[in-house]
Structures are given as structure tokens and as C-alpha cells.
Amino acid sequence: MASSLFNFLCLLLLLLPLPAISQAYRNISSGDSISATEDENPSWVSPSGEFAFGFYLLPNRNLFLLAIWFNKLPEKTLVWSADRNTPVQKGSKVELTEDGRLILNDHRGEEIWKAEVVSGIVTSAAMLDNGNFVLTSTDSGIRWESFSQPTDTILPSQTLNRGSVLSSRLADADYSKGRFQLRLEGDGDLVLYQVNLMTDFVYGSYWPRDTKYSGSQLIFNNSGDIYFMQTNGTMLHLYQGNEFPTSEFYHRSTLDFDGVFRQYVYPKNQSVNENRTGSWSIIWYEPREVCKAIESDKGSGACGFNSYCKQLYEDQMPSCECPPGYSYFDPNNKSGGCKQDFIPQSCEAYGSKEADQFEMKELDQADWPLSDFEQYYPINISKCEEACLGDCLCAVAIFIDGWCWKKKLPLSNGKMYEGINRVALIKVRRRNSTSLAPLTPPGSATGKRRNPPNLVLILSLILGGSVFLLLSAISSFVFCSFRKKRSTIQPDSTTMFTMNLRSFTYNELHEITDGFKEELGSGGFGTVYKGVFASEYGNFVAVKKLNTVEIEAEKEFETEVKAIGRTHHKNLVQLIGFCNEGLHRLLVYEYMRNGSLARFLFGSSKPDWNLRKKIAKGIAKGLSYLHEECRTQIIHCDIKPQNILLDDCFIAKISDFGISKLLKTDQTRTRTGIRGTKGYLAPEWFKTRAVSVKVDVYSFGVVLLEIICCRKNIEVEIGNEEEIILTDWAYDCYKERRLELLVEEEEALKDGLWVERLVKVAVWCIQEDPCMRPSMSRVTQMIDGSVEVNDPPDPSYYVR
User: Fold this and answer.
1) Full-prediction pTM beyond 0.90?
2) Which of 258, 391, 638, 647 is flagged as catalytic?
């Protein structure tokens, strides 16, 4: 009997809704209401204060959404909204009525939205600490919940069942329903779709491309894991969140407006303190290359019509760009498509005479794979241009290896990514073209000569021209006066200071750093101090005070400002500003709270193995960007753990370009003095040979071995003055198939295939002959597992 009663109680607990048995919450009683007022975000808050349900004031608009958001974060990030396409005005009200209905009325009292309760009588509501807003009955049973009506986001403890849909927002600042959906279909397939906004008609799936996930539920559990429960009961993980425990990080997974499903984390300890701010960081996403993934014969593609999706490397955030001669329909919605900024070529019989008023602009690595209406082969690029210029229907021509395709508007599925070996030729009207309207052919229409303009028109033109000239003269005078004044105030200004960097005075930086009080580190070219300064990167900055007594330091300052100011990548420390005042040369960087990779690796305990793999991949991607994706190639010359910094989420960022050497685009090598740090220097530094980007590849190989082993490359054994060289020992272990000696922790030992892969990559990188070392883009592919890693030779075997 006791056993039966126990089993019954267990069954009852399993049947109870999870929030009812795991969370306490504050009841919202019948008759309670909230009104949209001038007070920012009036709301009902969860017991911990982490989530709020109420009226969210839209940015730069006097409109509100009934929504749920992260309440402790400065950004107040939205996770759910009631009727996202219908914002309401001030005076609108949401109320839990006496008869148990949750209703949203606008400022006129008209019903806009209500929670559809299928059965039961609602007696109260609550905002739970997991981000779920629920309507409950007297027996605490949930009659309605926001988790069952998701918009674009799911949270830990939330589950998507068959038939569930996530719909992206329209644009970054527009919460209306967007062009992409994540659906768990009735047959169990989990699919990302591009859809028609008006009817939700599906244009086509773009993820997954080969095999579909098929099962019953998509589960985002309380540990931060996202996995798919398959029909056979097995779990297929999309992401395991053990690197970012939910006790320390907020998590959300959002189908973003660009069609990418991303998982984000935000450090909790930075959200509760007003003096410390963090940011959402991406830890997982699919598809990896959305610009390449989305292509359909219906719809516009990843971006709007007549635009192209730009994603030159995998971790780059995709962006929607307009081709030359085009601009966005709506600058606030860059994924909404582009329009021509000129009157198009006429298609009348005489229109061919307009061809000389147009020209072709080249756009490398771009393609619109659809919209073809004619093609040529064999043909050269000049003839391809001529064919398009002479055809009024042709807006763009695509050329590659003797092939030419003519395209007409609207252009769809535009894309730009690495590997598109094509040139897009964009037809635009010449700047000096005076024909801003279609030409009238001689002898057309009535066959009569056009009448001369009347007197009123002539006087209007003369008067308008006079006013224009007067305004132009005034504008020129003001501009020249301002420029002269500015040149007097800032005699040292050059083109390098026209970049989007803040110029600080020395006194400002002295105040920000409290008199250069807290030192973060020092190197050959200066010392770094911690400063307090609010910016888009947080409330702290790192101020690098360069040694200015040597001429070289000034040159290095100019090099850093020019190089770093033009680079932006998630795995590079971002330059915020500079000081160039008198003898003072300082650089201001974003602050990296978790310090250097050296401190991370060489502490008392070994850090997490999976996190180390992620850090190695990040460093490789950052170097690949510097070597191959910058307009001006950059060789770092001093890659070492001290110059790799870790942000709040332990994302690796390369720092200290103070000893970097810029190369012109037509150069591949440079001769210079030895630069770098003992133990990380490539052999060619000591052989009076020209150095190339391969010196960074060598240094990365050394750092990769340090990441694998959590040991410094050069160590002095206790009780013995002989130095132990990690690179030599690691190759010996690899050659003898004793890789277990390199790692000690159980997690890495279980991951033996990856340990072997990373060691092989490292050995390839430290080949003494630079020609044998792979490029950093190749290294990235090796670490990703997208290409095979062959067995490397002895690093010293190919010495020349």
C-alpha cells in the first residue's frame, strides 16, 4: 500500500507543470493592470527581478510593445512580445480582468490582443524567474504561458514541440515579424525557412542542407544545452553549454533578423552592478555561412532585392550591402533591399544611343546567381561590359573565365563571400551625364521641332541658378574658414585621424586612469594602465602609454593607429582612440576583463579543455584576418600568450600591434630587425632571410602546443639548469605515439583524436622551412575539422 501511494505521488509530481513545483512567484490578481505611461517600461517583475512583463518603450518612438525582457541588463533585451506588428501608444493598458482574461487595450480602449486560454478558469498570473509569463487557475495549473507562444527567442527550460514556430524580427530595431522562420514541423523535421511576409508562404528551406533533424522536441535545458529529442529517444545536441554555466551567465537563443539562429550568453556578475556592464556574446549559431546557405528561385534571398549578403569569413556577422549606384529603400532596414539612384537606361528604339551615358562598376567576389536572361561564351570582360551597356534590360553582368551572364532587375539572392571567383559588373549612369530623363528622339511624336521654352521658365532658371550660386559661395566660405581654423588648432592632423577613432587629450587619459595608477602590464614599447571610461565596449578601457623618447616609438604609434583603426574582428582587441599631444603617444583599447592567455594557461590548475580548443580556433581566425582579409596585410611579429587577451566570455582576442610591420598589397616579404620574444621566434629571423606572414604561423604553432599542454615553451626543470623545449618534446611524443604525455586531464584524454589533430597542426606550423608551413586560413580549416591534417614531417628536416 505504501509503495503504491509513493508511486502515485511520484506520478503526480511528474504531471505537475515544472514552474509550479520548482519556482515561487508573485501572484498578479484579477483586476490588476499596467498602463503604458511616460515612465520607462512599466511592468510586473519576477521574484528575482531578472525578468519583467509589461510595456517596453520602443527606441526613438513614442510607441510600446507588450513584452517580456531581461530586466537587470542595461539593454533590457526582449525575449517575447504579444502582438509584435501592432505597437501601442501611451495610455494603452494590459489587464487581468475579473473574469480571468488577459487583455491588451489600446489608448482608445479597443482590444488589440488577448491570451487565448483553451480551458479552465484563470484566477491569477505571474512572471516567473525563468522568463515565462503564466496564467494559472485555483489549483495552480497553468492555463496559458508565453513559452508556448514564442516569438523569436527561447530560454533555458523552454521546449519547442511539433508545430512550434520562431519568427525573426524584421530588422535590428524593428520587432515586427521578419522574413525567416524556424519551424518544428508536424512530421518532426526542424527546418529554417525563408518566408513571404504577407502570407508566411514558405519559399524554401536553407538549413539543414543535407540531413534534417527529425524528432519530437527541441529542448533548451537549464544547463544551457540545446538538443533535439529524436523519435527513437536519443538526444542530438546542437550545443552543450557547460563552458558557460547558467548560474554565471544569462542564456538566450534567438532567430535573428538575418536568418541565423544564434545562442547568446551574458555574464550575470556584470549585469547587477551599475558600474560594470557587459554584452551579449555569441557561443553557437547555424547556419555557419548564411550568405552561402540561402538561395531560392522565389523571394529575395538572405537580403532584400537588388542588394547582396556580405560574409567574407565564417565568423563575420553577415551584412546587407547595396551595389555601386544603389541605396537602401529604408536606411533603418538594411535587409529591406536597394533602389537605383539614377534614371535607368531607356528601352525605346533610340535607347541604344544612351549607352555612352552609362558605365560599368566592378564588384569583386559578388554574384547574383539567379535573374539570368542571356549568357555568352567565349568572351572577354570588355565584351561582357559592352553587351550589358548596349542592352537596356541589363542591370548587371557577371563574368568568370570567359563566361558572361546578363542580369535584369530585380536582382535576388545576391551574395559576397570568400571563394566566389567572379566579377560583378554593375551598370550605373555616368556622373557627368546630363540626361537625367529619357531622351526625346529627333522627329518623334508629332514630328515637329520642340517649342522654345517660355519666358517664365527662363526667368525661373536664371533666378534659381543665382540663388544656387549664392548659397554655394556662402557654403564654400564657411567651409574654408572652418578648415583654416581647424588647421590652426590641430597642426598635426593627418588622414589617419579621419578614421572613426576618438581623439583624447593627455589630461583626459590622466584623469581616466587616475594618474596612471593601476598597471595592467608592460612591454618593450610601453606600459598599459586600467582606465574608467564608458563606451560601447564597457565601462573600462586599457590605456597603452608608449615610450616616446625614441623616434621608433612615434613611427610605431602611427603604424598602430593606421592599422588597428581599420581592422575589426571578433578575435582582435579593438582600438577605441588615441592621444597624439606633444610628446605624449597613447592608445586606448577595449578592456579585457579575463586578462591574458598566459595567466589563463599557466595557473595552478588546468583550464577546461573544450574552452582551450575554442581559444585556439579564435586565435587562428584572428591571424587569418590580419594576413589575408585586411586591405593592408598585417604581420603581428610577436604572437605569444601574453599578447592574447580574453574577454568576459573567454573569447580570444589578439592584442599589441605595436611591433607589427605593415606590408603593401604588392609585397609578400619584408626585411627588418629581429622582433618578437624568445621561444616564439621563427628560425628565419636569425638567418638574415626575408620574413613573411609565416613567422606568425610559426609563433602560433608554439602557442597552440602551449594551449594543448598548459606548459610554457621554454621551462627550466627544477633542480636542473637545462631548459626543456616544449616544441621538441611535443614532436617526440607525436613521433612515438605517446600523446597522452602531453595532456593529463581526463576530458582531453577522452578527446584523443582532437588532441592528435591539434598536435599535428602545431607541428606543421613550426616547420623550420617557412614554405612548409600552411597559411592561417588553412590552419583554421584544419582546426575546424573541415580538411584533413596529414602527418607532418620532422620540423627540422627541410632546412635550406
Assistant:
1) no
2) 638
